[in-house]
Amino acid sequence: MDRDSFWGLVEDARASVDDTVADPDGVADALTKVLGTAEAEEIVGFGTELARLQVESYRWDLWAAAYLINSGASEDGFDSFRGWLLAQGREVWEAAMTEPDSLADVVDEDRPEGFEGFDGEGMLHVGSHAYKNLTGDEPAYWKAVDRDAPDTPDLPVGKEIDFDDEEDLQTRLPRLSALYLNA
């Protein structure tokens, strides 16, 4: 599956969700249904493209944005944040890849009580769920995706950022820092 086809499926799923910022799981559910009508090979292609996007987005500057937006971000939390970012669609994704500070236009600085972060973990599993629903064999999905997907680097790409260095965060991500530092 090529990138345009991948994003076309995501956009089809997004069309059925009223507020993708608040409901990335709704996008994941809709996408699982969309993929459920595909052939097994196409679902694997989707998973491989998703893995490529995850590797491309494994960057210090984007992790710093996730850290600010979610008041912290472990490695698993960063993965889930990138799932949330996928649920926002291609335009938001590509803007964030160009300039992570652009996410200030997407997120709301007001965090309601009980806020658990911008988390789209479900987006990371739509391929495996759709494949399992179709074939009953989830391990075969992961084996096929792992065969074709690039390896995640040991460290994020780019200049390392100390997430506890507020001055550095303000320099690199001024708009997000204004929203979330000392909030």
Could you write a compact summary of the structure shown?
With 183 residues, the chain is mainly α.
Overall description:
- The protein has helices spanning 3-14, 24-35, 40-56, 60-69, 75-87, 90-98, 126-135, 138-148, 166-172, 174-180.
- It has 183 residues and is an all-alpha fold.
- It has one domain (3-105, 116-180).
- Helix 2 packs parallel to helix 7 and helix 9 (166-172) crosses helix 10.
- The radius of gyration is 17 Å and the shape is globular.
- The termini are far apart.
Task: Draw up the topology in text.
Blueprint: H1 3-14, H2 24-35, H3 40-56, H4 60-69, H5 75-87, H6 90-98, H7 126-135, H8 138-148, H9 166-172, H10 174-180
Helix pairs in contact: 1-2, 2-7, 3-7, 3-8, 7-8, 9-10
Model regions low in confidence, pLDDT < 50 over at least 5 residues = none
- Into how many domains do the coordinates divide? 1
Number of helices: 10
User: What's the story with the biggest beta sheet?
Assistant: none
Mean pLDDT: 93
Task: Give short descriptive properties of this protein.
10 helices; 59% helix; 183 residues; globular
